[in-house]
Design goal:
This is Glycerol kinase. The chain has 199 residues and is mainly alpha-helical. The protein contains six helices and five strands; from the N terminus they run ααββαβαβαβα. The two termini are 35 Å apart.
Length: 199
């Protein structure tokens, strides 16, 4: 059995910043841009372009960038974009904790967004648990390759597969205080409320 939660817009928000707004020229640039600021400067970006999925389930939500002042820069918007994915991941994991009664100690990640060290550090800060990223970040493709290799006898049994992709992992731990985390989460909750009832 498994618990699953979906975020409607994650990596595609970075593509939107690149292709529609022109804030960045390449996806890789977002992490460096986000790193030019110490924090989000009070800017939150709810990337609800097609509503909010789990655990909000609000199809009337729309994208909203809130908290802008004259102090805000491209770096704050870039950081708020990365944070948006991390806040939504936190909301899903909180729902999973509640449903399962199990306290999560570690989050294993993969996919294109995990290439950003900045995003992974933000994720660890917001979750306050260890975030572990493997060297091979396309786990679905790796799983298909391992299953095929097992079927044709490259590996003799499933036990041999346990060490595959376990070397050169990167671990991220929270670097912020509980007070800072609570402040960030309250800001996110306010931003989510402002994204609702648009459709």
């Amino acid at each position: 059995y498994a618990l699953e939660g979906s975020i409607a817009v994650a990596g595609s928000a970075i593509q939107w910043l690149r292709d529609k707004i022109g804030l960045i020229f390449s996806a890789a640039e977002i992490g460096f841009l986000a790193d030019t600021v110490e924090d989000n400067g009070g800017v939150y970006f709810v990337t609800a372009f097609s509503g909010l999925f789990a655990p909000y389930w609000r199809d009337d939500a729309r994208g909203a960038i809130v908290g802008l002042t004259q102090y805000a820069t491209r770096g704050h918007i870039a950081r708020a974009t990365l944070e948006s994915v991390c806040y939504q991941t936190r909301a899903i994991l909180d729902a999973m904790r509640k449903d399962s009664g199990t306290e999560l100690r570690r989050l294993r990640v993969d996919g294109g967004l995990t290439n950003s060290n900045q995003a992974m550090q933000i994720q660890a800060d917001i979750l306050n648990i260890e975030v572990v990223r493997p060297e091979m970040r396309e786990t679905t493709a790796l799983g298909a390759a391992l299953a095929a290799g097992l079927a044709v006898g490259i590996w003799k049994d499933e036990h041999e597969l346990r060490q595959v992709a376990q070397s050169n992992v990167a671990a991220f731990w929270s670097r912020i205080t509980d007070e800072k985390r609570d402040e960030m989460l309250k800001g996110w909750d306010k931003a989510v409320q402002r994204s609702l009832d648009w459709a």
